[in-house]
Amino acid sequence: AQTVTQSQPEMSVQEAETVTLSCTYDTSENNYYLFWYKQPPSRQMILVIRQEAYKQQNATENRFSVNFQKAAKSFSLKISDSQLGDTAMYFCAFSDYGGSQGNLIFGKGTKLSVKP
Amino acid sequence: SQTIHQWPATLVQPVGSPLSLECTVEGTSNPNLYWYRQAAGRGLQLLFYSVGIGQISSEVPQNLSASRPQDRQFILSSKKLLLSDSGFYLCAWSYRGGKAFFGQGTRLTVV
Questions:
Q1: Which CATH code fits A3-115?
Q2: pLDDT tens digit string along B48-79?
Q3: Domain extent listing, chain A
Q4: Rounded to an integer, what distance in angstroms lies between the CA atom of residue B91 and that of residue B18?
Q5: How many domains does chain B have?
Q6: Which of A75, B2, B47, B90 has an alpha carbon within 20 to 30 A of B33's alpha carbon?
């Protein structure tokens, strides 16, 4: 069975600085998706970034980028120029490619606080 | 455009009462559907998922059940609620394992 592990329950960063959130996963699949979702206090889940496992190039979305290490099964999220609005729970997630197995597994989350 | 509706937003139920939470999706066909539970300040625990009508997979043994009577309808039920069923319930859908779209969530308090 697939598992997703986030080893940092809480983190904090000063506004405008850079922070990296860690995620490791375990799967026997070769093709799959990895995601980072953000959950602000409103509890609405927001997709931050997505990575297809067959792509070697790391995904980027504005201030958000990932370091995808397939062999190490590691998928970290880097937030540059942190903003107060980045304060939220961040979840790493795994999904099987094509969705036929229906797996969409989340880690336990990292609570990020951005301090002014 | 695709949207997902989940209701009610808040629910307070006595122990031993039944439960029915409903989730409907618009703008897509044959989505994967999911029910998650989130304890306060914690991660998302996958409860059920469905890859098609009438196909339900359960991830954890519990006091809950799920049904998918129509392609874009996913229902979470219980015959008798327990105190431990309290939590925040999220419905989600995805297409072929891609980006997931989430409902607004239901905060369930069992008293």
A1: 2.60.40.10
A2: 999 899 999 888 767 899 999 999 999 999 99
A3: 3-115
A4: 19
A5: 1
A6: A75
